[in-house]
Write a structure and sequence with these properties.
The chain folds into two domains: 190 residues, no CATH class; 145 residues, Beta-Lactamase (2-Layer Sandwich), CATH 3.30.450.40. 64% of the residues lie in helices and 10% in strands. The protein contains ten helices and five strands, in the order ααααααααββαβββα. A five-stranded antiparallel sheet has the order 2-1-5-4-3, with helices on both faces. Helix 1 packs parallel to helix 7, helix 2 packs antiparallel against helix 5 and helix 4 runs parallel beside helix 6. The longest helix has 62 residues.
Length: 369
């Protein structure tokens, strides 16, 4: 029966409960069950006429003590000193119940397993055997003065003492095994979480690499900056599930959908490529933030407007920023992946700019010659 209880403790612990709490619950159930069985044996045993009321009173008093002990043990879990005090107090008090009920020959002697089990499970080995010795000494004294067992040699009940010692020893060993299992389970749980995190990280990285390659296959065919910016804005919005993404760029010449940028008076006009619905962005402040990052030689994405937006320089020519990327509603854990996208887009934008310069040079030479 004790082994099955320990197995149930282990199962409860495996389901996520603390082993200390699981054992406390099992011991509480065992205490009530042992009270019920020993009280039944005591009340139904042959007795002189008129002794039934006394027996019921003893059993009732012991029930109150059992409920109180369970409550105190539940509160003391985690505090070895309180548990030790509770076990020793119970080991000394139980022989007072044995005194009028037959000493160590009383059915309630098996109820005494409760403080011994508590000591075996929760206390160091020295305290455990101290509780055992305390109980055996007190119960031997109760046997020596009990009217029912007075005059009997103590060796007549040595078998009972041997059983109590062996049960305590067995419980001690099983409790230590359960603690080792708990420690191993914690380590296995930590390793399992680490493996899941590593697997998730690999899966995310694989997905990120796949998305970058897909963007690269589409963007490498772009023939103009506007086409590249459109692919970037649309790709970032879809890949990162952002609310909006866009690129503000300086147009080399006025276009149909271009507009003036008052903070750039020496530039002809600005163009905007965006995907999604922009909730409202002060482009002048965002442009200033991008230029500040450029002057500090940092082109990593920057938080803007209390982190609502993330902005970053996209294209730089002759030390001046000519294109600014911005995104709204970006998950912060995706910034590293966004940086890869932006770096790839910068390289493509620089290549398109170099191709434009080469084409303009060839056109100039053709006109001259």
């Amino acid at each position: 029966m004790l082994s099955r209880r320990l197995v149930r403790w282990a199962l409860g612990w495996v389901r996520g409960a603390s082993i200390e709490r699981s054992v406390a619950s099992a011991l509480a159930l065992f205490r009530l069950a042992s009270w019920a069985l020993t009280s039944l044996m005591y009340v139904t045993s042959p007795s002189p006429p008129g002794a039934s009321a006394f027996k019921i009173a003893v059993a009732s008093l012991l029930l109150v003590a059992a409920v109180l002990s369970n409550w105190l043990l539940n509160r003391a879990v985690g505090d070895s000193r309180q548990i030790a005090g509770l076990a020793i107090a119970e080991a000394i008090a139980l022989p007072a119940v044995l005194l009028p009920t037959g000493g160590i020959a009383s059915p309630f002697v098996w109820y005494a397993l409760n403080p011994l089990l508590v000591a075996a499970v929760y206390l160091p080995i020295g305290y455990t055997w101290g509780v055992v010795v305390t109980f055996l000494a007190a119960s031997s004294a109760a046997t020596a003065v009990s009217p029912m067992t007075r005059g009997q040699p103590l060796t007549a009940h040595a078998q009972v003492a041997l059983i109590l010692v062996l049960v305590t020893l067995t419980t001690r060993v099983q409790a230590q095994l359960l603690r080792r299992l708990e420690m191993q389970s914690v380590r296995i749980g930590e390793q399992s979480r680490a493996l899941r995190e590593a697997y998730y990280s690999l899966a995310v990285r694989g997905e990120a690499l796949s998305s970058v390659l897909q963007f690269g296959r589409e963007a490498i065919a772009a023939q103009s900056h506007v086409e590249l910016y459109r692919l970037l804005a649309l790709g970032v919005k879809q890949r990162f599930r952002a609310g909006w993404a866009g690129v503000l760029y300086i147009a080399s010449e006025r276009e149909d959908d271009s507009f003036d940028c008052p903070w750039l008076p020496d530039r002809p006009s600005c163009g905007l490529v965006e995907a999604g619905v922009r909730p409202g962005l002060d482009w002048q402040q965002a442009w200033s933030a991008g230029e500040s990052a450029l002057r500090s030689h940092a082109q990593d994405p920057l938080d803007h407007e209390d982190g609502a937006y993330v902005v970053a320089p996209l294209l730089v020519e002759d030390g001046d920023m000519v294109a600014l990327f911005a995104v709204y509603g970006l998950d912060q854990i995706r910034r590293t992946e966004l940086l890869v996208w932006l770096e790839y887009a910068r390289q493509l934008a620089a290549r398109i700019a170099a191709a434009d310069r080469t084409r303009h040079t060839l056109d100039y030479l053709a006109d001259v010659y």
